[in-house]
Amino acid sequence: MRRTSRFRLFALALVALLPSAIKRPSYRLLFGYKIGKRVRVGFSIIDARECRIDDDVQIGHLNVVIGVEKLTIGDHTRIGYLNIIRGGDEVSLGRYSEIIRSNEINSIPEPDVVNQIDPRFSLGDGSIITTGHKIDFTDRVEIGRRTILGGRNSSLWTHNRQRTQPIHIGSFSYIGSEIRVAPGGGIPSRCIVGIGAVITEQLQGENCLIAGVPAKLVKQLDPEDSFLIEYKTRPDLPDNV
After folding, report:
1. Under CATH, what is the fold of the domain 6-230?
2. Do residues 132 and 103 lie in contact, with contact meaning Cβ atoms separated by under 8 Å?
3. Residues contacting residue 14 through CB under 8 Å, at least 6 positions apart
4. E strand or H helix at 16, and its extent?
5. Are 168 and 117 in contact (CB under 8 A)?
């Protein structure tokens, strides 16, 4: 993870105290960030070597983004409060995505591993991470578009002692509470994952209910189940997202 100097942190903390109307030009002038129109940032620290925040983004209070090499936040994205995003080569939050509260998205700095790593986190357009989840992206974590990591207290881990493997989650999926995804695990598109499932491999097959320890494809989704993956993740979500 890139080390952040005390002076830079002090300057970022001072900027965090400013109103959004002054905060936007301060980020541009002092740190070279590219900040769009109507961006609102609360009392939060945003530290990235390279940063682009598009129009109409809302970032609440008490969030910490620190040690990120490249941060990209698409338009109309919302970040609630008490979220931590730390480290990694790249963090990309797609258009109309949302990270609600008390989530930890973290890349281990200089891990003791025997393989090449790709510390990048990507949250697809219109996707949502709700509350109290832990995501380790010491290796790559990709979440497709209009997917919901719902409920509470799920964990996604790419790092396992001295080896890492990436995690891929498809689009239009709904993931319940208390899910565990091990290194190399994956969830297909258009699936529902039941509470407490443990994903230990890259599962194959769309439009399925996934459950169990270890998790497996239980059945095809019927029309009554499919509403969880078909409806819009946000009321303001455009049809083309």
Report:
1. UDP N-Acetylglucosamine Acyltransferase; domain 1 (2.160.10)
2. yes
3. none
4. helix 6-16
5. no
Phi-psi region of 10 (alpha: psi -120 to 50; beta: other; left: phi over 0): alpha
CA distance 197 to 186: 12
Percent of the chain with pLDDT over 70: 99
> pLDDT tens-digit profile of 116-128?
999 999 999 999 9
Residues 143, 220: Cα–Cα separation, whole Å: 22
CB 128 within 8 A of CB 98: yes
Give the per-residue pLDDT at 2: 64
Instruction: Please give the model's pTM, rounded to 2 decimal places.
Output: 0.95
Backbone angles phi, psi at 12, to 5 degrees: -65, -40
Instruction: Determine the Cα–Cα distance for residues 34 and 52; give it in Å rounded to an integer.
Output: 5
What is the rounded distance in angstroms from the CA atom of residue 203 to the CA atom of residue 209? Answer: 11
Yes or no: say if 84 and 103 are a contact pair by the CB < 8 Å rule.
yes
Place of tokens 């899910």: 179
| Chain position carrying tokens 């029309």 | 223
